[in-house]
Predict the 3D structure of the following.
Amino acid sequence: MASPVNPPRGMRDFLPVDKARRERVLAVIRSVFSAHGFDEIETPVMEDSSRLHAGLGGDNEKLAYGVLKRGLTAEDFATATDALDLTDLGLRFDLTVPLTRFYATHRAELPKVFRSIQIGSVWRAERPQQGRYRQFIQCDIDVVGEPSTLAELELITATLSTLEALGLIGCTIRINDRRILSGLLDSIFLPRDQHEAALITIDKLDKLGPNGVIAELRDRKFDEVAVTLLDVYLAGHIGEGMVNFSAEQLSTYLPVEVDRFVIDEIVALADGIEAAGFASSRLKFDPFLVRGMGYYTGTIFEIEHPDLPYSLGGGGRYDGMIGRFLGADVPAAGFSIGFERIVDLVRLRDDESAGGVALVYDSDVTSATLMRLKAELIASGRRVRLERAPRNLKPLLAQLTASGFTEIATVSIGAATVADLRMRKLAAG
């Protein structure tokens, strides 16, 4: 027996019904993002290898797919000291690095404050497992050029509006600031040059728990005094995060090493969310939220669903990133919805397919008749599919229903116009 022909590991085919459902979810996301004033752009699926490995992508750089240079010789392979010596391009592993290059390229043609939408596939050499793929779609919005918290407010409100439009009502946004994390690590006397390394472990708090994080920090030989002080702080403050918080609460909750200005910015975000019509409880302050990307410089946030152990997306402020290409810093912040994680949670009405009709025709009906009937129905706004009448109609009806068709009409040789057809409803499900 022939072996099955499967797509590459970690990549997937989508049948028409699945593709249609994914496109409907994407249409909602695009529509809401656009309503909030964001404009969609498109960037190449590949970027220069040097850019993808410039230290902007964190651990994702290690998962990037490289593209070999053309015309390589055996000598090139023999003399290469690193695999990257053989590549000049690579598949994008996220949409943020391409956006920074895009902005640097087109800055003169863009508004002073640029609000972008990017939706497209990215590739990472992940170890395939449930919920992790090597090719997947990201849905990003970014605000470039706005230094104030207005950028974060626009990103968060657009994201909350999108989640509601998709029917994901119970989601909240966990929020923190990299400057708060720095203040926390300063308070336990951890040297600044060890902050990023320590945050890699603290980022595992949801997975390892407080005891596991402390054990790993000790295994990694961090200063015992600093680890002990962090253990004490975790014991007194770990929990589900703060909601409906105030500046006074945060000032008491956080070490004195945290800048009061940063606290005021966090509170301003909560006030702005409420002013936009969302309950302030939709924002939850979590002082241990890290997000692993080292390029974040300020606010960071993640989407939390009450029934799921993982986030549905996230983002933050990355003011120093675009400056790597321009030579001058440009304020920027972004939010990414985890499309592959939400698409299976969404249950949209099949409005796009409503009105779909299948014309099941006898073998003696002429092609001209079928095309005339199809054209008339399409002109009236219907979706139309032609199907030759089978011996057993039941499997065809099930397939049509699964594809979103709601009506069927049998076409015999006497049918001349749509008025001659007898339409009947297809049973849902």
Q: What stands out?
A: The first strand starts at residue 39 and ends at 40.
